[in-house]
Amino acid sequence: MDKNYLVFTRKWRPKTFEEITGQGQVVLPLKRAIELNRIMHAYLFSGPRGVGKTTTARVLAKSLNCEKGPTISPCNTCSMCREIAEGNSMDVIEIDGASNRGIDEIRDLREQVGFGAARGRYKLYIIDEVHMLTKEAFNALLKTLEEPPAHVIFVLATTDPQKIPQTILSRCQHFRFRRMPSGVIVENLKMIAGKESIDFDEEALYMISKAADGSMRDGQRIFDQAVTYARNEKLTTAVVSEMLGEIEVEVLNRLMEAVVYGNVKNGLSGIEKIFGAGYDLKHFLRDFISMLRNMMVIKTGDEELVENMGKEEAEYIKKLSGDTGAARILYMLKKTIAAEQLLDKTSLPNIVLEVLVMELMPGNETREENGPAPPEFKEKNVPSAPPAVKKQDTKTEPEKKEETHQPAMIIDSIEEEEKISKLTLDIVEKRWENIIDRARAKGKEEALVQALSSAGIASCEEPNLFIVGENPFLTETLRKNIDEIRGIIREEFKKDLKVIIYCKEEYKKRREVKEEVMEEEAKNHPVVKELSKFFDFTDVKIERKK
Q1: Sign, CA torsion 251/253/254/255
Q2: Cα 132 to the chain's mean position, in Å?
Q3: Is the pLDDT of residue 194 over 90?
Q4: I need a labelling partner for 86 at 20 to 30 A (CA). Which of 27, 416, 441, 477 fits?
Q5: Helix intervals (H) in 135-230
C-alpha cells in the first residue's frame, strides 16, 4: 500500500478562496470582511453535505492567521498555514457536534475559550454538525457565543439549520451554501483528470455528477472510485454504470424510445431486462423522471435549466422532446412520479412498471384527460347496438333494409328484455362473448379486449356484477377501463350495473375469509349451541341450497 497516496477529496481540497467554486455568495462577503477588518465573532455555515462548509472555515482560519495576513490570499507555505491544512494547529479546534453534543463538552469549551491563541492572531472553533447538540448544550453555549473574547471566532457548520434554536441563529452571521450545479462538478473533475493524466469520456463525468447529487465531495469520491475501477483505462459511461450498479444509459434510452414512439413490445421487454438484471428500480425511476423533466424543460425552450447532461445526451433528449407534445410529457411525468410512490407499497414492482409502460403509450393521456362520456351523451349521440340482433343479420342486411324490418327488430328487443328482466350469472356468462365483441368493434385497445377475454364472472346480484381478473396486470387494465366496461354492459343488457373488479388472488382470499366468518357465526347460533349439549361435535359445515 502506498502510504503517500491521498484520496482526491483530500488531495484536491481548495486551499484558497479562489479555489472554492460554486459558492460566490459566501466567498465574496468573507473576502470583503477580511479586507475591511470587519470580522464577526460567530458565523453559521449551512447547506447540503459536501459543498465546502468545513473547507471554507479552514480557508478563513488560514486567511486570518497566515504570517502574511490577515489576507484574502493565504500563502499556504508558512508554518501556520501548513498546520491548519494538516489539522495540527492549536489555534484551530475542530469539534464534531454529533459525538460531542452534551453539556459537559460545551462547559469544557467555555473554560478553554478564555485562554489566548497559542501562535496565531485568532483562535477559531469549528463545530461541525452543530444541530446535533442537545438543548442543554445550546443553552450553555449562548452567553459565550454572544460575547466571546476578542481573539475567539466561532464557525458553526450544519446541514439542518431548522434544528438550531433561534437564540443561537440570532447571534451568528448566517451564510447559506448551495448545491453544486452539475456543470461545476464536471469542470472540477476535468481539472483533476488533467492534473492526474486520466483519460475520460465527458458523458462519464456527467454520469458521475448526476450520482453526486449536488455534492462536490461525493463527485470527487465517486470519480476516485471509478478511476480505480477502470484500472488506468479510459473512463467511459459503461465503466461508471457497471461500478455504480446503475442501469446503462443505452438501456434507459431504448425504453424511453419505446414509450415515446408507442412500441409496447420493446417497452415490456425493456422492463423485463431491467427487472431481471437486478437493478435498483427506484433509482431507475428517478433517472427516468430526470429524463422526462429534461424533455419538458427543453420543450419550454429554457435549456439553461437542464441538469446533468453532456452534449450527446442533450441532442438525444432534444430529438425525443421534438417528437413528443408538451401535454404528453407532463402526463408521462405525473404517471411516473405516481409509480415511484407506489413502488414502496407493492410486492410486485415489475407489474407496477409494466402497467406504467402501458399507461405511457401514445393516446392514453388524451383518453384520461377527456374521461368517459356520460350516459346521457352516449344515448343521444352514440346509437347503442341492437341487444338481440343476430350477427349474420347485421352483416348481410344493409341499413335501409334494417329500417324496413323495424317492427321485427322491436319484437326481438322486447322478447330479449323479458328474458333478462332479472339479470343472473348464467345470462351474463352466456353473453360475455358479446361484451368482448362489442369492445373489439368499438376499437378499444387490445389490452382491454385481452383482459375481458381472460376475465371470470364471479357473481351477479343486481345491481352488482363481480368480475375477476386473471392476474394483477390484466386486473389493472380492467380497473383502468371500468367506465368503458360499464358502458358496454349497459348497451348489451340495457341495465346500469355497478361493476366491481377483483384480482383472482384477492377474490380467493376474500372468499376464504367470508367462509370462516360464516362458519364462526354458525357455531355461535343458539340452535347449534343447544344441540351441542346433547351431541358431541367440534365443527359445523355449511351447505347452500341451489
Answers
A1: positive
A2: 28
A3: yes
A4: 27
A5: 135-146, 166-169, 182-196, 202-212, 216-230
Which phi-psi region, left, alpha or beta, contains residue 22 (left: φ > 0; alpha: ψ -120 to 50)? left
> What amino acid is encoded at 409 in this protein?
M
**Interval 135-176: pLDDT, tens:** 888 888 888 888 888 889 999 999 999 999 999 999 999 999
d(CA 481, CA 303): 38
Plot region of 37 (φ>0 → left; ψ -120 to 50 → alpha; else → beta):
left
Higher pLDDT, 310 or 90: 90
The DSSP code for 304 is G
C-alpha to C-alpha distance for 305 and 258, rounded to whole angstroms: 26
Task: For residue 345, count CB atoms less than 10 angstroms from its CB and return exposed for 0-12, middle for 13-18, buried for 19 or more.
Answer: exposed
H helix runs in 66-215, sequence order:
79-86, 103-113, 135-146, 166-169, 182-196, 202-212
Query: CB of 248 within 8 A of CB of 241?
Result: yes
Report which of 393, 499, 489 is spatially closest to residue 435, judged by C-alpha positions: 489
- How far is the CA of 461 from the CAs of 330, 425, 452, in angstroms? 41, 8, 19
Q: How many CB atoms lie within 10 A of CB 184?
A: 18
Length of the chain: 546
Q: Please, what sign has the CA dihedral across residues 202, 206, 212, 215?
A: positive
* Residues near 495 by beta carbon (within 8 Å), at least 6 away in sequence: 420, 423, 462, 463, 489
With 60 as the cut, is the pLDDT of residue 416 above it? Answer: no
Q: Cell 466571546 sits at which residue?
A: 148
Q: For residue 383, say if its preceding peptide bond is cis, omega within 30 degrees of 0.
A: no
- DSSP 8-state class, residue 374: P
pTM for this one?
0.59
The domains located in the chain, with CATH, are: 8-176 (3.40.50.300), 182-244 (1.10.8.60), 249-367 (1.20.272.10), 373-419 (no CATH), 420-546 (3.30.300.180)
> Which class for 124: exposed (0-12), middle (13-18), buried (19 or more C-beta within 10 A)?
buried
- Residue 245, classified by CB atoms within 10 Å of its CB into exposed (0-12), middle (13-18) or buried (19+), is exposed
CA distances (Å), origin 246, targets 251, 272, 308: 10, 16, 15
Cα–Cα distance measured from residue 468 to residue 504, given in angstroms and rounded to the nearest whole number: 6
What are the cell numbers at 142?
449562548
What DSSP designation does 247 have?
P
